[in-house]
Amino acid sequence: MSRQPIDRLPRWLVAIGPVVILGALFLTLYLTSPFGNLGAVDDASTFEILWMLAVIGALAGVVPVAIGMLWFPIIRDLDRRYLHGFLALAGGVLAFIAVEMTEDIVEHGAEAEQTLLAVGLAIAGVGGTFAVMYLASKWRQRTMATAEKSGLEIAYLVALALGLHSIGEGLGIGVSFIQGDSTQVMLLVLAFILHNVMEGPTVVAAVARDRATPPLRHFAAMGVIAGGPVILGGWIGSFGDSPLLAVLFFAIAVGAILQVLIEVADLIRFDAEAVLTRINAATFAVGFILMFLLEDVLTDVLLEGSVLGL
């Protein structure tokens, strides 16, 4: 089995290291409030705005995904049954994101003046993306040299689906930034950090079932694909708050996630035949509930704290 430097780290360090890094990042941002002065955003040049949004997007997207991926050595040491459970947990995370973004599609579609166009974009985005990824998956299966499913390929698909979802996160940051709403920018960044740290293990769970650990460049590439689009979304959001554009991006992400959920189920079935086991059902539910707590409940708590001046 090929071993990378990340595999040789002490397990206790792998277990608590990401938590310590995440806590330090969260505490530093919360105490220093680096986005507290956006009053001069109107006087900033386009380059300065894009640069600041790139920094903010990296903090909210790429960094937390990378932190979550540090748990990879622990995930790959799991028994095959529990590894399948972790893949199911990843499925629960993706399912929650899909449900949440479906709500966003409805919300932004209602805000759009051209309702029929919004409905058309939603259907085209979900259906078109699902169809393209499904056909690409079938083509890949036909052209594979061996019958063995590659976890690395599935991991890249998971990263792509999460990246499409991350564009929607960036849209919210970009709109709030250009409006000079520093409090909302801070809340979104803090919430997305805690939200996106779970995307790291979600991405690498499929890789863990492969015999060999891929080179670190693959981890870096998947982290950028999954978290980097927050930057792109921030740039787009800074140029205008378009409900129709939001509908399209969210719909594309939902279509991608639906196809990825099928891929994850097929990956489990390839190893174990039965997808719906007690462990898999329980971990799927845990993933869904955990994301609900991190996304909805945490955001509400942060918003209440900001209103009360905490």
TrEMBL record:
<feature type="transmembrane region" description="Helical">
    <location>
        <begin position="12"/>
        <end position="31"/>
    </location>
</feature>
<keyword id="KW-0472">Membrane</keyword>
<feature type="transmembrane region" description="Helical">
    <location>
        <begin position="114"/>
        <end position="136"/>
    </location>
</feature>
<feature type="transmembrane region" description="Helical">
    <location>
        <begin position="51"/>
        <end position="75"/>
    </location>
</feature>
<feature type="transmembrane region" description="Helical">
    <location>
        <begin position="185"/>
        <end position="207"/>
    </location>
</feature>
<feature type="transmembrane region" description="Helical">
    <location>
        <begin position="274"/>
        <end position="294"/>
    </location>
</feature>
<keyword id="KW-1133">Transmembrane helix</keyword>
<keyword id="KW-0812">Transmembrane</keyword>
<feature type="transmembrane region" description="Helical">
    <location>
        <begin position="82"/>
        <end position="102"/>
    </location>
</feature>
<feature type="transmembrane region" description="Helical">
    <location>
        <begin position="244"/>
        <end position="262"/>
    </location>
</feature>
<protein>
    <submittedName>
        <fullName>Putative divalent heavy-metal cations transporter</fullName>
    </submittedName>
</protein>
<feature type="transmembrane region" description="Helical">
    <location>
        <begin position="219"/>
        <end position="238"/>
    </location>
</feature>
<feature type="transmembrane region" description="Helical">
    <location>
        <begin position="156"/>
        <end position="179"/>
    </location>
</feature>
